Amino acid sequence: MFTKILIANRGEIACRIIRSCRDLGIQSVAVFSEADAQAPHVLLADEAHCIGPSASSESYLVGDKILEVARKSGAEAIHPGYGFLSENSTFRRACEAAGIGFVGPSAEAMEAMGEKTLARETMSKAGVPIVPGTEALEDDQVLEAGIKLGFPIMIKAAAGGGGKGMRVVHDESELVDAFQGARRTARSAFNDERVYLERFVERPRHIEIQVLLDQFGNGVYLFERECSVQRRHQKVIEEAPASILSEKTRAAMGDIAVKAAQAIGYVNAGTFEFLVDPREDFYFLEMNTRLQVEHPVTEEVTGVDLVAEQLRIAAGEKLQFNQEDLSIRGHAIECRIYAEDPSRGYIPSPGHIHSLRFPEGPGVRVDAGIREGSDVSEFYDPMLAKLVVWGASRPVAIARMRRALQETYIGGIRTNLHFLDDILGDERFVAGGYDTGLLNNWETQGEAPEELESVMSAVAAAEAAWTRTTGNSVQEGQAKGTSSQWKALGRRENVRGSGA
Predict the structure, then answer these.
(1) pLDDT for 474-488, tens place per residue?
(2) Active-site residue flag, 194
(3) Of the candidates 10, 13, 12, 14, the residue with the CA atom closest to the CA atom of residue 35
(4) What is the domain partition of the chain in residue ranges?
(5) Alpha-carbon distance 179 to 144, whole Å?
(6) Which CATH number is 4-103 given?
(7) 316-352 tens-digit pLDDT
């Protein structure tokens, strides 16, 4: 086993990895940008090193700086978490060239699964069902290909992820314009304008299978996670096991995921994402070659520490269990707590957290990257924490999550706490038969069109910059009875309050 590893990440996932390291007796090395100098992961680690300015492009995304810290600190391996460099094959190869271990799969496996059209081809050859679709297309090819494929159609970015560039088209008259718009989005988001078409699966559910494989050819699946509660293709709430799924389908999806991973020589933790239709026919969506944000719900129902298993596999150890040793116990739900304002189009809400209360009690777990006094920066993803609950049954878990959400308070910024509670109380979610359309047309006051979100996010960043410059926050000014400086921009006040 390693004696010291570097965590090439920040926020709640860095804290999560550090805790597993401590459980295993491994020393942890944190890296941080100037904006994160007092962040919880910096204070929690055994040692910490600054790697540059606040912008991730000058700090967390600069592999050379991270490798320099690894060498200087004596770290034997790097855990990338998720996001940033976690699926960067160039960085993976740089670690290998430097003689530093990497907690994750090979660069070749990353590349095979990272490019969506190549991944579809690879999985099809491995016998995994895929949604009928095309290769990457040019503008003059799209109309003929779309008519041949049949409507409705999903347009996707070949190098995409996180829902960026995805569009649903129901009629051929809309296809060319939508295709060109998707190319522009892909070019901006990924510096790669290639897009392709897939047949759109009606009323799909988004269900993923967690796999673990060691270098000795052993592999297991740790059952499924339901990730169908999504807003604009971004996951909001996850649960394990899926709300409704037959044992036959669960076993078939698990078996095919392990065999597909073995077929490409995959080693470490990975996740196969599937679309499942109302008949429980399932189709490969993508493979994430890293730890998932929602991994805690799998840990809660299986009792397996996925980070610890990642570290053991990366250190050359065999899996400690086989498929027959694994079972599902109870039910777990995860809610992603974001610094965002649902009443104003879900714009990010950076600022200073002047008070904080997380829930306690049986079956409650909080993976957080904040503490009281933290400054939430506009430079990074607005996820603050993950609230996870376990219950002996799904109804118990739902009730426990609602109680936990209502006990949570984050003062000084806006959050999505009320939005999450509303979803948990929705009769369609409670019944369990929901699909990825659950949040379509969700009645949230002030919902902004997707194309305006980037503009509103820029306004939120300007608000945070004003706060840093003046030493005052808009929320604090409102608490003292003064009017918001941002009313001049035509921005409505949030009726939910600072903990909303």
Answers:
(1) 333 333 333 333 233
(2) no
(3) 10
(4) 4-103, 132-199
(5) 13
(6) 3.40.50.20
(7) 999 999 999 999 999 999 999 999 999 888 999 999 9
Place of tokens 């933290």: 374
Pairing of strands 4-7, 27-32: parallel
Contact between 382 and 12 (Cβ < 8 Å): no
Looking at the structure, give the CATH architecture of the domain made up of residues 132-199: 2-Layer Sandwich (3.30)
Q: In whole angstroms, give the CA distance from residue 309 to residue 321.
A: 10
Q: Which residues contact 469 (CB under 8 A, 6 or more apart)?
A: none
Tokens of 37: 């100098």
Identical fold for domains 4-103 and 132-199, yes or no, is no
Of the residues 92, 290, 312, 394, only one is catalytic, namely: 290
Q: How many CB atoms lie within 10 A of CB 105?
A: 27
Model confidence over 85-119: pLDDT tens digits? 999 999 999 999 999 999 999 999 999 998 888 89
